[in-house]
């Protein structure tokens, strides 16, 4: 692919080009140039802006196609009859300008500020990245360990079955997504997304990450990328403080923070970007006691479901020769609400992955999914979740947290109190009976046959049962004996929100506290948390500290 030039030019986005999955990718670029009538000499640059697999069945047959939007750069003066026709038919449009990630101005109140960022998840890391690029001094504090040590701590948890509450699958460098599928697609349409993805490419991620509609990194690669990202941040002046839990804010006056009180001492700062993730329950409570406002918000609860990957491949890609050119198949399924039953959907599908114990506190069980870059396991897993709100858990800022904890405790105890997870075949869940025989799964800490149908509140049982019936129509076998439900999945999204000013992004009643990411209720996933961190850092730079 050629790069866009410096001389005056125009970039045209050619939409919806299709080709077979066996065709070489560069053919998209040639097609796009032809589509606008540009001769090779008139093409100054071309690149795929978006590429997705279309695996829909037509007439009962899988016709696998890639569909792409392609950007073609030409001299500014370029015009052709084909281009005019394409523009008129809306098959072509001027390519949207890329976001630079640069603040339009720097408010004098932050020019010399020291900003403390709490949390090294995607929200905190990308907030630090934006701030450091503007010359702001940043101290990034995380209660967990850097990735090298964090891996050993996780192995120790699996061996001893005693979680380390400070550094675990959820806490430590990279945050909750460090042991994940590393899916990086979002439903947020933000031009800044590409800029952030390019930074990950600069840290060693595959360049297709920027345009692949199903982009994922995988845990193995993420573990090589994160230390490089850390090194680049350090080179830009970010100081990391690991294994330091923020316990309280030190206030200069009501609503104004002057330092963080941490387990390793006080960290002075002029502003705080607070990105502690969806499981920092102790920290939320501590800040709430100091007058920081929290509200409950609806969140998702359900179970993981696991199948042999080939069952999913067969349904989604078919058995034709082209299917072998594609990796393991994924799915995203929705069951709408109907007749007193709330809707449910699949979430965070991990092809070729495994189920993990997504645990930070002793005595509570929660599952999630991860995979490596090659999606190499023989298992496919995903969450099936429904949304619960105050109707289920009642009033109060932390009522949702109490509801989560109650269910997590119930599943922990039903698993025998050592992180074995209760499991039930989908067919048995629907028939409301315990599963017999060996339950095989990727879940490394082991399963026990359990009445998942009874452990869940009735509203969730009804929603998941209806969803299983619906999903069976798309993926035959989904709800049969080969589908295994493993519980509980309770942290697909955060249960609290910290209200903040929409423009300045300051926490309510605070001049210099900036809530960010999933733990503050503004994100649900790696990229949305990263974007929230970056956008909040830009708001801090442009609008300053109050
Ligand atoms: C197993 C798993 C798989 C996932 N897979 C995907 C996926 O494929 N794609 C996707 O988009 N999303 C995935 N997610 C969700 C995604 O990881 C989160 O949405 C995202 O990480 C949220 O980012 P964040 O920056 O808001 O918080 P987090 O990533 O949770 O980071 C918060 C950080 O704050 C630190 N912290 C907390 N309290 C304190 C304190 N008091 N003092 C100091 N530090 C503190 C924690 O140690 C942690 O490192 C997955 C999550 C899990 C658990």
Please tell me about this protein's structure.
The chain is α+β, with helices and mostly antiparallel strands and 546 residues long. It has three domains: 86 residues, Alpha-Beta Plaits; 227 residues, FAD/NAD(P)-binding domain (3-Layer(bba) Sandwich); 191 residues, no CATH class. It is 28% helix and 25% strand. It contains 14 helices and 25 strands. α3 links the parallel β7 and β8. The two termini are 46 Å apart. The mean pLDDT is 95. It binds flavin-adenine dinucleotide. The site of flavin-adenine dinucleotide has 45 residues, from α3, β19 and α14.
Question: Secondary-structure blueprint of this entry?
Answer:
Layout: E1 9-20, H1 26-35, E2 45-54, E3 57-58, E4 61-62, E5 65-75, H2 81-88, E6 92-94, E7 114-118, H3 122-133, E8 137-141, H4 147-160, H5 192-202, H6 219-235, E9 239-241, E10 246-253, E11 256-262, E12 265-268, E13 271-274, H7 281-289, E14 295-296, E15 299-308, H8 309-317, E16 334-335, E17 344-350, E18 353-357, E19 367-371, E20 379-388, H9 390-393, H10 399-414, E21 421-425, H11 426-431, E22 447-449, H12 452-455, H13 458-474, E23 484-489, E24 496-497, E25 513-515, H14 526-543
Parallel strand pairs: 7-8, 7-13, 8-9, 13-25, 21-22
Antiparallel strand pairs: 1-5, 1-6, 2-5, 3-4, 10-11, 11-12, 14-24, 15-20, 15-23, 16-17, 17-20, 18-19, 21-23
Helix pairs in contact: 3-14
Bound molecules: flavin-adenine dinucleotide.
């Amino acid at each position: 692919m050629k790069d866009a030039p410096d001389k005056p030019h125009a970039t045209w986005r050619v939409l919806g080009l299709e080709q077979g999955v066996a065709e070489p990718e560069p053919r998209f670029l040639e097609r796009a140039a032809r589509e606008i009538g540009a001769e090779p000499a008139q093409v100054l640059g071309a690149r795929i802006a978006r590429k997705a697999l279309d695996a829909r069945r037509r007439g009962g047959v899988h016709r696998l196609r890639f569909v792409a939007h392609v950007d073609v750069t030409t001299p500014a003066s370029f015009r052709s009859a084909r281009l005019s026709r394409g523009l008129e038919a809306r098959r072509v449009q001027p390519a949207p300008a890329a976001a630079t990630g640069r603040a339009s101005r720097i408010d004098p109140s932050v020019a010399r500020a020291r900003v403390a960022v709490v949390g090294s998840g995607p929200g905190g890391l990308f907030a630090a990245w934006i701030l450091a690029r503007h010359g702001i001094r940043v101290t990034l504090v995380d209660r967990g360990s850097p990735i090298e040590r964090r891996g050993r701590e996780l192995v120790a948890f699996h061996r001893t079955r005693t979680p380390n509450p400070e550094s675990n699958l959820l806490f430590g460098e990279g945050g909750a997504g460090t042991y994940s599928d590393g899916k990086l697609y979002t439903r947020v349409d933000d031009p800044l997304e590409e800029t952030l993805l390019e930074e990950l490419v600069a840290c060693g991620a595959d360049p297709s990450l920027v345009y692949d509609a199903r982009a994922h990194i995988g845990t193995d690669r993420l573990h090589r990328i994160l230390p490089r990202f850390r090194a680049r941040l350090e080179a830009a002046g970010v100081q990391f403080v690991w294994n330091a839990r923020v316990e309280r804010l030190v206030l200069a006056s009501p609503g104004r923070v002057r330092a963080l009180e941490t387990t390793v001492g006080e960290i002075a700062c002029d502003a705080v970007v607070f990105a502690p993730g969806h499981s920092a329950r102790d920290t939320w409570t501590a800040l709430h006691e100091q007058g920081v406002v929290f509200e409950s918000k609806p969140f998702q609860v359900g179970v993981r479901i696991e199948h042999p990957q080939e069952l999913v491949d067969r349904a989604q890609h078919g058995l034709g020769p082209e299917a072998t050119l594609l990796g393991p198949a994924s799915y995203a399924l929705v069951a709408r609400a109907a007749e007193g039953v709330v809707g449910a959907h699949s979430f965070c599908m991990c092809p070729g992955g495994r189920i993990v114990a997504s645990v930070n506190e002793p005595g509570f069980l929660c599952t999630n999914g991860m995979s490596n870059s090659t999606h190499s396991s023989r298992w496919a897993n995903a969450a099936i979740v429904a949304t619960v709100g105050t109707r289920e858990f009642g009033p109060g800022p932390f009522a949702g947290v109490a509801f989560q904890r109650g269910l997590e405790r119930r599943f922990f105890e039903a698993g025998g109190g050592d992180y074995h997870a209760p499991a039930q075949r989908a067919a048995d869940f629907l028939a409301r009976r315990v599963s017999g025989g060996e339950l095989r799964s990727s879940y490394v800490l082991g399963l026990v046959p359990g009445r998942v149908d009874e452990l869940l509140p009735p509203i969730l049982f009804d929603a998941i049962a209806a969803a299983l019936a619906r999903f069976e129509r798309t993926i035959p076998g989904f709800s049969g004996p080969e589908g295994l439900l493993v519980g509980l999945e309770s942290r697909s999204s955060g249960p609290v929100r910290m209200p903040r000013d929409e423009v300045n992004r300051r926490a309510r009643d605070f001049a210099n506290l900036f809530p960010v990411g999933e733990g503050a209720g503004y994100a649900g996933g790696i990229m949305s948390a990263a974007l929230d961190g970056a956008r909040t850092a830009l708001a801090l730079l442009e609008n300053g500290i109050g």
